[in-house]
């Protein structure tokens, strides 16, 4: 092909991992997947630049670089995005107590915006009009990546091979992909791929697909990678304290290790290590993907699980009741959806995130915890904010207000309730007799 | 006093417990508290009928009956409200995943409506124009009880001694109350009261006040009553399965005990026993009372903790994504507030609860769990509802829809995002460079 | 073509209207559009059954029938869906005060579910595996129709010619379509099509596209069809009363016409006639389509505008404050979105609608109104529900509660506010000096 | 009385108005009310400083000053708070489209925070430990004032005579108050008070109480003060344009008067004058007071009605769909409640308001309107924001995206709907047959 169709920036994967977003995950690991895509793009007449992001996953970046260049990439970029991942994505999500469908801490979702931004910056600099990735056509990550691309660089053109019929029909089975790899002299790892796919970063690891697709299959014990089995965790609880300023962790103290951490990334990594040792942070769920498909996923989010528990606890002591209620109902829920659905670079994210600082102004203080065999146990908390007042809440002494005030409060609160009750009685619908709780509906 | 001022139905407490709502909780246990109130009401010229509800708390009802009559109650009523507590209050709350401020399962709040309704039924039957209780003037329970009274019987008159200055000034210290008890020949328990107050029922126990008022004080190990310390729990995990129909537990199987439970109350009690043994269900929080005061509470909700985890999990498999999201944001949050604030007998409860059945129509299936040293571990789940489709979610095969459809989906989803990004670029506010996440606010 | 590809049920349009959903609306009126599609489907080898719904639009159904059969339809079905349109769609929306983006009363959205259901019933009966329509690929209605089809009959196959490249490229201009019509001997109306497209039913008419695409173009005076210009409306106001039972209109009285209407459909049509005469119900907006595109639309919803004003007013008198607030925030907003986006036959609609009856149990009473040159003026309202109490709200006499109770209420309400203010003062952030309202944010 | 009990700052009212918050509104106009309170406070041994705020109401401030000093006030302060009323309260409420219970624009609520802040500043400066007002014990304004006082100066002590039994029993009728006025030589206005009470400022006037307490009584024609009757309004529509920047009006042009206004307060007053002439801005409702009592109120909000209509319209053109939806559901509704309930100086207001700027960044453009006999008619709108794209929304040409993309979008959107429909069919609950819309509930 004498003339290039253009330059493509390819989200490349390294040598060992398997990707949750690889279509055919048990057939091709992520390396084979994006290496084959690399070769295929060149075959289609594109010039390809390979891109990798270091978001804290365990990966041999140098091997990946060599492989990408060997397969034919014009250039290879490795961007260390760990710090912005922690400070720009993880910490706002922590401040907002983000959680998806009550359980999932959004570890994969949180990494996508920084990776996508890293890619768009390189695409800009390297003059790439196209971007490509190895995500399957059924998952969340294709959506998250592409919406992020468009939110940053609306004229970027996306090549998603696993959604292009001529690609996915050609490589419909493991043999076809292996044959192609052999033809293109792409080195293939010899060990059998695990029967599930994973996505890893410093926040978490996810497990999906393969044998996990039966939601009643218990994950094998050797699947879990980032935490020990609670049964193998130490018999002795681990004490630690976390100090927050404006809702963010600023100091972690581990007394029996005589250690103190104050850097944002360091804090996160230290908590990961502690949680790993004590079996903290495993979940196993069926979740609803953005595209409307139900999907089973297992996750380990070790440090994040501790941080969330501590942050939620400290808000009890330091956050006003009404702010907390409004924040929970709107910011927590909406930002979690925004993250899960890949809507980070959108006006609604800009809008919702703008309300976080006012909600965290008073979230200052210290939480004492223990880790023990999978449990995060709150031992106590303190703050100088002054919204908690022992004397006022005390059952044992007067303070703050007169008991007679409460009589007035209850009388006023009951005005409309009495009116409703009187109307019920007039209609013969008084509520005194037990009945079906749903029975008073009509 | 020759002529009675009227008949009072008094919420009476038994012989051993201490009440979270006793003003002066370390001075007077609940028995002394309401026994003294009983005597005082008689002294004021009222005829008093004593009422106790059996909502599953550990209590010597017969001793209480004798004491109440000895002090001067005209009659004594003990109502067994356990079944309606479980079926009318606990189960709707379970279906809606109710939880207050992310953590508290609302055990005390849930019992109040059935107790209040039991009282109003007796008040009706016995011709009591007045009702009285021993709640402090600073807590939630006075509000919950009284709003429930008014929502059922809007003309009832409430006598709340701990909010009447002549009462609370007269009994401002332990000595005054003990002297009064001696004067009135009220037997007083000899053992020292515990340095906190409690409220117990079959759902949970709460600990509050006293030494717990310092939120940084770790509760003493011997405080916890309904669960063993996770450290003392068995080394071997306990397997069990819970089957749900329309969001309610209908069968609990404990394989290694060869036991099956199918009755609503039995299920709850069996789960309590299992959770107790395995240290499941302890929390320690600072919460926001309805009256706007922050308060520290510790709670054990053993069986409820298991049920909630199982129910939330099964909804992942069987509940539509959009129904779940709407239910979480509206029903879960609003019903939890309604319960906490004692608004059960109100039009808003009637309204919110009416939406529960439609949300639970499909929540049918089985969850397999393990209990282990404080952990509730989901092992798997199954259902014949058919909303989960392995083939559709599979990364390994085509199914359900074409990968090309997702391209269209992403294109349509990106229309407004691209417009926003283009406007940002025109204004020189493109998002490609990292920046303070809150920085794009203005 | 010897063998049929299958049977298609085609949503056919009659002789005179222009459709908002016709692609190329100024080129082809709706009749030409679906008549050409009819011919084209036959050409492709399908057997076609034509379907029309009478939802109250002004149309010559007999002419349409003849034309459809002349072009080659095997059968023609005309379904009168007016009553179910009113009772199953319009009235729940009225009870919930549905409105999209503060202004649009959802007239087109409301008709789609009944039309789609009518089609699926015929498709079932006539053994049609396919369904087809003439909607453009950019609008809301394609989405609404198709999601409704799938929600009723998930295995139906949709043929949307204006989204099939071979169709929309072939008929890319008026000449091509006219030539095709001539070739197929499809009679074409001689009068010039209006420079906008419309959709009409008994609830409303919409105007869109064409010259209206410039959002700064004022619609021409002769565009409006269902209402007179307020300037041409009578100088004398029109009095009427509407009686509601459980939130639904059950009696409309027009005193100076000496008329009373009690039938659901009759009520709606009578209000349409009155509103038309008095210029009530015009709007002109830019709205956000489900697919994320902004779009300008003008609408006339005459009777619905009166009904909504009266219903909202009566709720002031008869609906509990908290139920109203929760209903507004959740049911009104969510059901409006559900309707607009065509999600009627979904689990979330089932869920949200299930909460309506409990919200309307008390909405019983009478509203007196006047119509005058575009205005709907509330003159008074009455009800025997008893939630309003003159004595209680009176500024001129005591009643219902003691003024001293309010002191207690305010004291309790201020507890957490004082704590916050004290903390502000300690931090030097007291609010007494005027400042930028957004300035206290950080 | 030899020694003062302390200094009281009294919210004093002038000579002519009647106050909605005066208890006994038909007996005593506001002047008599607070003049009598002034005399009474002095009688109780307080030193009194009188305070008036100019928030745009029609009032003879000089006469009021003379009267206050004559009755015995030590000092008299008149604060002009019009500008901060407009810029700090009205404009954020406009940006957020605030409205209470669908109809009320919150004119009284909006003035309270600036008045309360003005008072607390004087109380600080003048060393007043006490503050007093003439509000009734049943209304909203007592709550709004006092919560604002406490949110600014938590140690202020409030004297609310109409909630003090010895005061309200002593002055239980007009004669008692007139006799007291005579005794204290307080001049009393001779004209009969109107049979309702009012509250006026530059935003609006409210009418309440008296004959309006019957919700079925039509207000008399001569009650309305700030707008002409639409029937008396000019036959010729009035054209005007409003330009917004970041959601705030920055330029109003009245072509046929050849006038342009650019100052915030000027804009508001000019719109008031135009709306008054054309009969724009009257409402008549039954609303729910914060204390849970239903109350009938009539309001004229002339300029505000125009501004809201224009702002809502421009948001259609310039605000992202998802931001609009989230803002409507959370900020609009919550801030309206906050304002109505007097929670301006609270952490939740700080939180909610902090989200406004991000929602208004793109709300820039021009709206053309006409006023005609009570109607605000949108004629067109324009903006250079670029979120609206004629080509993209056009039904007449391709643009922005491929029609085939919509096919993919609909397929993906229908995945979970089809699953639900299939489950319904399996259960014999397919939705094809018409049925009671609420019937699928259980």
UniProtKB/TrEMBL annotation, chains A, B, C, D:
Cellular component GO terms, alphabetical: cytoplasm
Domain Arginosuccinate synthase C-terminal: 196-419
Entry keyword Manganese: no
Record GO biological process: argininosuccinate metabolic process; L-arginine biosynthetic process; urea cycle
CDD domains: ASS
Pathway(s) it belongs to: Amino-acid biosynthesis; L-arginine biosynthesis; L-arginine from L-ornithine and carbamoyl phosphate: step 2/3
Family stated for the protein in its record: Belongs to the argininosuccinate synthase family. Type 1 subfamily.
Quaternary structure, from the entry: Homotetramer.
Record's protein name: Argininosuccinate synthase
């Amino acid at each position: 092909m004498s003339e290039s169709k253009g330059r493509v920036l390819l989200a490349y994967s390294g040598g060992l991992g398997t990707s949750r977003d690889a279509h055919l995950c048990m057939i091709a690991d992520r390396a084979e997947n994006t290496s084959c895509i690399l070769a295929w793009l060149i075959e289609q007449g594109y010039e390809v630049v390979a891109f990798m992001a270091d978001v804290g996953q365990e990966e041999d970046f140098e091997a990946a670089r060599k492989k990408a260049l060997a397969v034919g990439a014009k250039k290879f970029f490795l961007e260390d995005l760990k710090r912005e991942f922690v400070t720009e994505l993880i910490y706002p999500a922590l401040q907002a107590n983000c959680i998806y469908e009550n359980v999932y801490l959004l570890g994969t979702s949180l990494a996508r915006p920084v990776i996508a931004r890293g890619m768009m910056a390189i695409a800009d600099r390297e003059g790439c009009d196209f971007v490509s990735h190895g995500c399957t056509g059924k998952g969340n990550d294709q959506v998250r990546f592409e919406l992020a691309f468009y939110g940053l660089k609306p004229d970027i053109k996306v090549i998603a091979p696993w959604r292009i019929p001529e690609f996915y029909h050609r490589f419909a089975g493991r043999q076809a992909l292996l044959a192609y790899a052999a033809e293109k002299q792409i080195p293939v790892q010899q060990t059998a791929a695990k029967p599930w796919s994973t996505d890893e970063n410093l926040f978490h690891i996810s497990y999906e697909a393969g044998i996990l697709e039966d939601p009643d299959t218990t994950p094998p014990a050797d699947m879990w990678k980032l935490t020990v089995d609670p049964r193998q965790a130490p018999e002795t609880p681990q004490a630690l304290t976390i100090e927050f300023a404006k809702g963010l962790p600023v100091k972690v103290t581990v007394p029996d290790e005589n250690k103190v951490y104050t850097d944002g990334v360091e804090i996160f990594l230290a908590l990961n290590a502690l949680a790993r040792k004590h079996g903290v942070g495993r979940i196993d769920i069926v979740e609803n993907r953005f595209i409307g498909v139900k999907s089973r996923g297992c996750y380990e989010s070790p440090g994040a699980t501790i941080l969330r528990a501590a942050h939620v606890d400290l808000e009890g002591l330091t956050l006003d009741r009404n702010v907390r209620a409004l924040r929970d109902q709107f910011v927590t829920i909406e930002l979690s959806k925004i993250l899960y659905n890949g809507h980070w670079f959108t006006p609604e994210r800009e809008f919702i995130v703008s309300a976080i600082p006012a909600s965290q102004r008073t979230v200052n203080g210290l939480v004492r915890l223990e880790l023990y065999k999978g449990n995060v146990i709150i031992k106590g908390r303190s703050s100088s904010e002054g919204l908690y007042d022992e004397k006022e809440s005390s059952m044992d002494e007067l303070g703050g207000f007169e008991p007679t005030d409460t009589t007035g409060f209850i009388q006023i609160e009951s005005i409309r309730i009495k009116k409703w009750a009187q109307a019920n009685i007039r209609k013969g619908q008084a509520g005194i007799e037990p009945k079906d709780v749903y029975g008073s509906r009509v």
